[in-house]
Design goal:
By secondary structure, this protein is mostly helical. The chain has helices at about 1-5, 20-35, 40-45, 60-70, 80-85, 90-95, 105-115. It has 7 helices and no strands.
Length: about 140
């Protein structure tokens, strides 16, 4: 890390200019809005969902795929990371019980598995109960 930092060019002595930042952001505001807006690519991709109505015969396939994906994730790193960024209050609590696993197992994954790298989970966007919290980088920066 020290070698990397030493190899960086010196920081410019100029001060931050909010006007320059706003000018830069204004330069891509319209294309960004078109891309993510009502008529943009994201909306176009989302429209494909209407082409394939709910197909009950696919549910077991996706359930197996989801379970396998979750089980291949590291219990001491990946799963706690997922839970520390899973907002259980989003969409009126639609994801509060996701993934569907027994409560004691989920509790163990979050609290016991999460204890292994506890110092890292402070960067998560949610607390251990899945409620949004102030980001670590913004705490105390008022």
């Amino acid at each position: 890390m020290t070698n990397y930092l030493a190899a960086l060019p010196p920081r410019p002595t100029t001060t931050f200019s909010s006007a320059d930042l706003i000018s830069l952001m204004d330069a891509f505001k319209d294309p960004f809005g078109q891309h993510f807006g009502q008529d943009g690519e994201v909306a176009h991709l989302a429209s494909f969902a209407t082409l394939y109505p709910d197909q009950p015969e696919l549910r077991p396939i996706f359930a197996t795929w989801g379970k396998n994906s979750l089980m291949k994730t590291g219990v001491l790193d990946g799963i706690p990371f997922m839970f520390c960024n899973l907002d259980r209050t989003a969409e009126d609590g639609r994801w509060a019980d996701w993934p569907r696993i027994p409560g004691p197992i989920k509790w163990g994954m979050i609290h016991l598995g999460g204890a292994w790298n506890a110092r890292l989970w402070r960067f998560g966007s949610c607390d251990q109960e899945g409620k949004p919290r102030e980001l670590e980088a913004l705490r105390g920066a008022k």
